[in-house]
Amino acid sequence: MLFHATVEATDNAEDPMWYVVHAGDDTEEYDGTSAQYGRDVLENWITDQASLDDGDPAPTTDEYGNPYLRVVVRFSDEPDEHDDRIAVVDSSELDTPPAELNAVDAARDAKLYARYLDRLADDELEGALAAARKAGHGANDLARRAAPAVSRPIALRMMAS
28 forms bridges with which residues in the sheet? Predict the structure, then answer.
């Protein structure tokens, strides 16, 4: 799957106000789950920051285990895309979970990715319907063509917007 990561930090781990310290440039191909991708990105970020600080890593959690860092993982790096974050991994969650929890993460990713692709397809269909309608094709004929992907009322609503 393709993932995009944003590293965020806070100065107050007990009552965090998160700010972006690094936003990935592009989406990256990754074979594992979004949560594992987030853990890998965060571990790499912590290692890179420690090497910049002469090997003296900054604390990643406070004395109560609250995280100072987190990674937000999305499917897209496009700011106008309407996908939500699919995983948030903080610096208190760097250990790899047991296999059964990893299976839950993988199933969640598959469902969210299908939902994401469905939204992209809806956008594409809406654009095609609007263009065909603007070219003079009848709304009822276009709604019939769009079935069974979307119902007639949905197709008509897509053409109206």
Answer: 3
